[in-house]
Amino acid sequence: MYKKKNRMPVIVTGAAVGALILVLLLLSLFTKKKPEAPVEEIAKHEVLIYKATGGSLEFPESYLESENDSEVRLSVEEDAMVTFIAKPQTGKIFGGLTINMAKDINQEISYLVNDVKGEDKRINFVMPQGDVLVNMKFVMEEEAQEQTPPADEPEETEAVSEKTQEAPYGLTLHGLTGEILASYDGAFDDIAFLQALGDDLHINSARSEYRTVTDVYFSDEAYDGEKEDGKVYHYIYFNNDPRWRVLSTYFKKERTYMFTEIQEDETENTAADADSNTAGSTAGTASTSATGSGSTGGYSQGSPVTTTTSFDIMQVSKTFLKYVGDQDRFYEECFQYVLLKGGSGNIVGTMSSYEILPEKDKAKFTITLSTGGVIEGSYNRKKDAYSFGGL
Q1: Of 311, 286, 284, 306, whose CA–CA distance to 296 is shortest?
Q2: pLDDT in tens, 70-104
Q3: Whole-angstrom Cα distance, residue 111 to residue 47?
Q4: DSSP letter string over 182-206?
Q5: Is the Cβ–Cβ distance between 322 and 291 less than 8 Å?
Q6: DSSP for 322-380?
Q7: What is the rounded distance in angstroms from the CA atom of residue 289 to the CA atom of residue 291?
């Protein structure tokens, strides 16, 4: 006799298996990792170090690419702060090193050297955008002493004492970071920087308002004004007073520095310009002078009369001339204005103040004349035009 089979257990089992498969599929969808965004790799460049006898050079092991008896090859990320420790052998001392771009050996990379322990030296530089070559040397301690001239004899070599090299005008530099060094593309030279600063601000002059400066600080505040290609801008301040600051501009192509005062309040700027007897915005003076001569015609009792006019400008700031660019044109523009106002005879002018406003591409200046008159002028860098008032 035929019996009808109960298929319910099979159906239930099938449903359970189907549900389990569905759960597993859903879990795989939710737990599946999303594709990670590609990480942009930082460019690396080679540091080729030629080994020297008499000592060794320590560096992070992560830099090492290869090494043999004569050289070491390292791989370092672009813009990274590179640190070496030079370790002389007993009886020898660190004799110096050079760092040059591999593709242009005439281009030197600036670096800092500091004492570590004993005769060991720590060397720091910012990895530029290209491969570099490093050469170093270690010398006998006796040789170094022989090369040092006696204190009572004039030094005939070009060597300058380490103290003098590190501190032009007795200045001490603070706040230099790897980021700041990187902004100069590895070309920053602390000695040249301080030397240019002291020269432009005439720090050693009794007449300079910067004569009391002893410490120079790089500011954490980023420059937010208009920027031009090929220039590096940083605020610096003096003697740990952030309010006493100037703007440092570095010209990459010329490898020169310019330092301009910062005026925080436009109202103060206007007031300063209105006071022709105030020289508060001068950053020092230079031994530059301008000369010009001309003649004007007239008649006296029916006879022609010729009046000759000569014009000199003394104590023109080198920083100001760098900003306006064309030195001869500046002198000529001033001279023509004096003639326009009827000036005659031998006239001598003195630049009593100037003010550079890089955010506005403008410079203002005051020239006091020997005749008692005052010229108040300005230069618009965008329009490349001068304007004058006074007299």
Answers
A1: 306
A2: 889 999 998 888 889 999 998 889 988 899 998 88
A3: 14
A4: HHTTT---HHHHHHHHHHHHTTT-T
A5: no
A6: HHH--HHHHHHHHHHHHHHTT--EEEEEEEEEEEEEGGGTEEEEEEEETTS-EEEEEEE
A7: 7
- Residue 351: HSE in the Cβ half-sphere, 13 Å Cα cutoff: 29
Q: How far, in Å, CA of 132 to CA of 49, rounded? A: 9
Q: Is the pLDDT of residue 387 over 70?
A: yes
Query: Which two three-digit tokens encode residue 304?
Result: 């022609």
Compute the distance between CA of residue 273 and CA of residue 280 in angstroms, rounded to an integer. Answer: 10
pTM beyond cutoff 0.70: no
The span from the CA of 290 to the CA of 253, in Å, is: 28
Round to whole Å and give the CA distance between 274 and 176.
Answer: 38
Residue in the structure block whose two tokens are 């603070």: 174
Q: Which residues fall within 8 angstroms of residue 130, CB to CB, at 6 or more apart?
A: 45, 101, 102, 103
Q: What is the DSSP string of 244-269?
A: EEEEEEEETTTTEEEEEE----HHHH
pLDDT tens for each residue of 135-166: 888 888 766 555 555 544 444 433 333 333 44
List of domains in the chain: 44-141 (2.60.40), 164-261 (no CATH), 278-390 (no CATH)
The C-alpha atoms of residue 245 and residue 235 are separated, in whole angstroms, by 7
In the predicted model, what is the mean pLDDT of the chain?
77
Q: Which helix (H) or strand (E) holds 147?
A: helix 141-147
Q: Which residues contact 216 (CB under 8 A, 6 or more apart)?
A: 171, 172, 173, 174, 194, 197, 236, 237, 238
Q: Strand, coil or helix: what is 161? A: coil
Q: Over the Cα atoms of the chain, what is R_g?
A: 34
